Amino acid sequence: MYFVYLLQSQRDHGWYTGYTENIPRRLEDHNSGKNCSTHSRRPLILIYYEAYLDKYDALGREKFLKSGSGKRFLEKQLRNYRSNDHLNERTKR
User: Fold this and answer.
1) Where are the alpha helices (DSSP H) in the chain?
2) Which of 31, 50, 62, 64 is the 20 to 30 A CA-CA neighbour of 56?
3) What is the mean pLDDT for each group of 10 consecutive residues in the chain (93 residues)?
4) What pLDDT shows up at residue 43?
């Protein structure tokens, strides 16, 4: 299986989209600082993923999700998560 995943930084609450064949290992790599794109944004949590049988379908989806249209899709797809996340942040203050 091939996966496209979305991580959220617990530091700045920003998102990172990536591709992998092994989600647990990849998340561990991100959180241990092995990825230069996310090492300063740790810790990260997995908030969304999609699974594909074909590698090139997954890579195409990753490219789409990183585009403007893809980011809008993710915002709509995760609107309840974002809403609840926002409420949780207000209660922490």
Assistant:
1) 23-31, 55-65, 68-77, 79-92
2) 31
3) 97 96 98 95 97 98 98 96 67 42
4) 97
* CA triple 68-26-23, angle to 5 deg: 80
Q: Where are the domains of the chain?
A: 2-55+62-92
pTM (2 d.p.): 0.88
Q: What are phi and psi of 31, to 5 degrees?
A: -75, -15
16 φ, ψ (degrees, to nearest 5): -135, 130
The H or E element spanning position 6 is: strand 2-9
Which residues are within 8 A (CB) of 73 and not within 5 positions of it... i.e. 6 or more apart? 64, 65
Closest CA to 61 of 84, 77, 45: 77
Q: What's the pLDDT score for residue 91?
A: 41
| Closest CA relative to residue 24, chosen from 43, 47, 46 | 46
Please name which of 26, 66, 71 lies closest in space to residue 46, comparing C-alpha atoms: 26
